[in-house]
């Protein structure tokens, strides 16, 4: 099975940079996803890492270290609309199968 | 738009009642997933289909839960004899298919089930 750990809550200031960490312990690994979920809404895809290193996409970047079972999501130039829950999810199998989600990190952006 | 749709959006059931939740995935998406999300927690995997085949149902919490996707498109999650602990948001997601690099999941808006 999978164990995925993320901080429960984080607070940051508009315009700043924030890093949300995720650690995982898995029996198998075939990619790590980050999703954003606003309150009362469905999760939406942010990033995907399967190899070690940094993936950059606009204001958002995601890093993976498979040997350490560690990932982080980096959000730059924070905006008020970035206030949301950020979910780390690990895909176990070799195909499109099951992903296990962490409980999410609730980020509050303050003016 | 052509996103994932779910119905009903809200369902209130009396304890012991049967409910059926519907999911319409994105057209052409091979994979379909059901998740249960309790307040303040991440989505918990329930089951996964590839076309009409149910490849993994390890997350279904009991034999009261049953899912089907008979024609490889629309899926229904059925909960029999609902209990209060079944109260949650049920999310459906679809993805393009197997062995695709990203293969991110596209989520529907969810069905919020409240069992009284």
Features:
heterodimer, A: 111 residues, mainly beta, globular, B: 116 residues, four-stranded antiparallel beta sheet, 11 strands
Question: How would you characterize this protein structure?
Answer:
The complex is a heterodimer of chains A (111) and B (116). In chain A, strands 2, 4, 5, 9, 10 and 11 form a 6-stranded mixed β-sheet that branches. In chain A, 0% of the residues lie in helices and 56% in strands. Chain A has no helices and 11 strands. Helices cover 0% and strands 47% of the residues of chain B. Chain B has no helices and 11 strands. In chain B, β4 and β5 form a beta hairpin. The chains are: A mainly beta (111), B mainly beta (116). At the A-B interface, β5 and β10 of A face β4, β5 and β10 of B.
What is the molecular shape of chain A? globular
Head-to-tail CA distance between termini of chain B = 34 Å
> Share of helix among residues of chain B?
under 10%
Give the percentage of residues in beta strands of chain A. over 45%
| Uncertain parts of chain B | none
Count of DSSP-assigned helices of chain B:
0
Assembly state of the chains shown: heterodimer
Largest interface: A-B, 22 and 34 residues
Short description:
The complex is a heterodimer of chains A (111) and B (116). Chain A has 111 residues and is mainly β.
Outline the fold blueprint.
The complex is a heterodimer of chains A (111) and B (116).
Chain A: E1 3-5, E2 9-13, E3 18-25, E4 32-37, E5 44-49, E6 53-57, E7 60-65, E8 70-75, E9 84-91, E10 99-101, E11 105-110
Parallel strand pairs in A: 2-11
Antiparallel strand pairs in A: 1-3, 3-8, 4-5, 4-9, 6-7, 7-8, 9-10, 9-11
Chain B: E1 5-7, E2 10-13, E3 19-24, E4 31-37, E5 44-50, E6 53-56, E7 65-68, E8 75-79, E9 88-95, E10 106-107, E11 111-115
